[in-house]
Amino acid sequence: MRDPTEFLLRGREAAEFLMFETCTASRPGVPFTDPDGIVTSPLSTVYTGICKVQATVAQAASPVAGGHAFTVENLQLHFPVGSGVVTGDSALITSSRMDESNVGLAFRLVELARGSQRTAARWNVELVTA
């Protein structure tokens, strides 16, 4: 009988092979107030490496708030399993081999599709553009 772990590791390798973007993920630190009363939240880089931008539905929502219309897309950002990102982190796409229009997109990680036999860490993310 073959070890199923072998198949899972091969699946992870295949998933990472299809990650054509690179990104930097950051996490807000503890806010502090400087002597002038300005509150700053420093960012710590928690991951730099490959990722994949993936659409989850074909249609975006267009809410209106304060007289301004926004487009909210339903997307996922895939990372290698064990990348260390958590809910609330932000990720900035820094390069893309197949779609340069993805470079510069910023996402907020909102929900991880959990599981014990995942080939990638698939995060539901928010991308809001005006």
In short:
The N and C termini lie far apart (55 Å). The protein is mainly beta and 130 residues long. The protein has a single domain, classed as Bacteriophage SPP1 head-tail adaptor protein (Thrombin, subunit H, Beta Barrel), CATH 2.40.10.270.
Description:
This protein has 130 residues and is mainly beta. It has a single domain (4-129), classed as Thrombin, subunit H. It has one helix and ten strands; from the N terminus they run αββββββββββ. Strands 1-4-7-10-9-8 form a six-stranded antiparallel barrel. The protein has a two-stranded antiparallel sheet with strand order 2-3. The longest helix is centred in the first third of the chain and has 14 residues, at 4-17. The radius of gyration is 17 Å and the shape is globular. It starts with a helix and ends with a strand. The mean pLDDT is 89.
Brief descriptors of the model:
single chain, 130 residues, mainly beta, Thrombin, subunit H, six-stranded antiparallel β-barrel
Topology:
Blueprint: H1 4-17, E1 21-28, E2 32-33, E3 39-40, E4 43-55, E5 64-65, E6 68-69, E7 71-79, E8 90-96, E9 106-112, E10 121-129
Antiparallel strand pairs: 1-4, 1-8, 2-3, 4-7, 5-6, 7-10, 8-9, 9-10
Pfam family, one: DUF6093
InterPro entries: DUF6093
